[in-house]
Amino acid sequence: MRPIDKGVAKAFVLKILMDGPVHGYEIMRRIKEVTGFAPSPGHIYTLLRKLEKEGLVDVSVSHIGGRKLKIYRLSDKGRKFLEDNKALLTAASMYVNRFRKAKEVELHKLFKAIRNIFEFLDKMPSDKMKDVRDAIESFTRRINEIIGE
């Protein structure tokens, strides 16, 4: 199950808002700073709209440097939600810790390699497909040895 399915992203964004009101790009920056992975704007803004509809965040519009920005702040209902869902905050902290460790082992390089393979699959000759399959098999075997699977 993905973290978003467990409400972890929701709890993490609300936790960020506990520090004070911010705009969406600042939320994305803080998530990347903490986890090493940048969420997509589509994911964050969809989540923020959902939080607003649920009454967990309040939204105001500010004009900063000639730009119109939506500022998100934790509502009283959002504070109560966090108080009532300590287990969700614990799960969010666990996921953040895993993301930090993923950053340490440079897991993003693996994701990039997988994306590259996927993008070139339809152009890849059969001999290269076999090489990729062999590399994946070898990699998987080695990782399972390391983690004790």
TrEMBL record:
<dbReference type="InterPro" id="IPR036390">
    <property type="entry name" value="WH_DNA-bd_sf"/>
</dbReference>
<feature type="domain" description="Transcription regulator PadR N-terminal">
    <location>
        <begin position="13"/>
        <end position="83"/>
    </location>
</feature>
<protein>
    <submittedName>
        <fullName>PadR family transcriptional regulator</fullName>
    </submittedName>
</protein>
<dbReference type="InterPro" id="IPR036388">
    <property type="entry name" value="WH-like_DNA-bd_sf"/>
</dbReference>
<dbReference type="Pfam" id="PF03551">
    <property type="entry name" value="PadR"/>
</dbReference>
<dbReference type="InterPro" id="IPR005149">
    <property type="entry name" value="Tscrpt_reg_PadR_N"/>
</dbReference>
